[in-house]
TrEMBL record:
SUPFAM superfamilies: NAD kinase/diacylglycerol kinase-like. It catalyses: NAD(+) + ATP = ADP + NADP(+) + H(+). PANTHER family: NAD KINASE. GO terms for cellular component: cytoplasm. The keyword NADP applies. NAD(+) binds at D71, G72, R76, N178, D179, R189, D208, A243. One of its GO terms (molecular function) is ATP binding. The gene is nadK. This is NAD kinase. Belongs to the NAD kinase family. It is found in: Cytoplasm. Gene3D superfamilies: Probable inorganic polyphosphate/atp-NAD kinase, domain 1, Probable inorganic polyphosphate/atp-NAD kinase, domain 2. Its EC number is 2.7.1.23. It is an enzyme of class 2 (transferase).
Length: 334
């Protein structure tokens, strides 16, 4: 692989990640490859992060992005990689590691393999959205944001409109690899939302949150809320309600060309919109957002042929039922 520049995203709160990042910089310098730290979190309380487009420009539009941390750090890199058209290699210093690929102990070997082209690309579907208005974070909730992890991202810019129909809303220049979450902002007020699938009203929910996830994100918040796990080889959307006040609390699995729209009902509390774990806006009653598959895909670097279900079994610590083990041992393959 011809690497003209490397973008580096580091979980600076972990000593092992900081030490591993230093290895990446030394490796890049030894190969005369520019290496730029991106999505750097400032200690300033009111400092905001750069947009994905600006981050890619600052790093010289890298062909490779390396993340050193866990899946959260990987998602920080993914938002830039998709916009830069870069491949992304995750170095695992986290706790779960569904997305990361290389271990710290094998970091240099992993980078050498990428440079030599000894890898495969695992392309993953991403989500984008349009809205009734541009997303913004009110200054009145600034104190609440301070409880979050890291500085805020800027408001998503508006994409070029391709439809003249005003009902299609404002296209937002934003991508999600894992999920888009609509959640209540106040502890004592539920999020009351109407959910539409392909423009038709499906159901209205009063819930702690509702989630629209990709197959990649189906092992994240959606899974924790009781949603199904989808193979990343599939293309589609998963809609999952979180603690809904109704008898129907099941997920919906939808096709890759379908859309899920969420509108805040007139007497609902405010609804926060998070994209891959980062707060991106707050919705008022009457506001709506439509979520659907986006055009760019995240290109994950894979160095070994590891089956997704094997990875899931290991990462989640799945064990066979004791009653089944008592009745026999299963072979590794059939």
């Amino acid at each position: 692989m011809s690497i003209t520049a490397v973008g580096l995203v580091v979980h600076t709160g972990k000593d092992r990640a900081v030490a591993a990042a230093a290895q990446v910089r030394r490796w890049a310098a030894a190969h005369d490859i520019p290496c730029t730290d991106i999505d750097v979190w400032s200690a300033e309380p009111h400092e905001t992060r750069l947009s994905a487009v600006d981050e890619a420009k600052k790093a010289g539009h890298p062909g490779l992005i390396v993340t050193v941390g866990g899946d959260g750090t990987f998602l920080r890199g993914a938002r830039v990689a998709a916009r830069a058209g870069a491949a992304i290699l995750g170095v695992d210093v986290g706790r779960v590691g569904f997305l990361t690929e290389a271990a710290v102990d094998g970091l240099i070997d992993a980078l050498d393999a990428v440079l030599a082209g000894k890898f495969t690309l695992d392309e993953r579907l991403m989500l984008t959205m349009c809205a009734s208005r541009k997303l913004e974070i009110p200054t009145s909730i600034d104190a609440l944001i301070r409880y979050g992890r890291g500085p805020t991202l800027p408001s998503p810019p508006v994409r070029e409109r391709v439809s003249e129909d005003p009902a299609d809303g404002v296209p937002l220049d934003i991508l999600a690899l894992n999920d888009v979450v609509f959640e209540k902002l106040a502890r004592d007020r539920q999020a009351s939302v109407a959910v539409f699938v392909n423009g038709r009203h499906f159901a209205s929910y009063s819930a702690d949150a509702v989630i629209v996830s990709t197959p990649t994100g189906s092992t994240a918040y959606s899974f924790a809320a009781g949603g199904p796990i989808l193979s990343p080889k599939m293309e589609g959307l998963v809609f999952t309600p979180v603690a809904p006040h109704m008898s129907f609390n099941r997920s919906l699995v939808l096709g890759p060309t379908e859309r899920v729209a969420v509108q805040v009902l007139e007497r609902s509390g405010q609804v926060a919109v998070s994209v891959d774990g980062a707060l991106r806006g707050v919705l008022e009653p009457g506001d709506w957002i439509s979520v659907y598959a986006g055009a760019p895909k995240t290109r994950l670097i894979r160095l070994a042929d590891i089956d997704f279900l094997d990875r899931m079994r290991t990462r989640l610590g799945l064990a066979d039922a004791m009653a089944a083990v008592a009745d026999g041992t299963a072979p590794d393959r059939i």
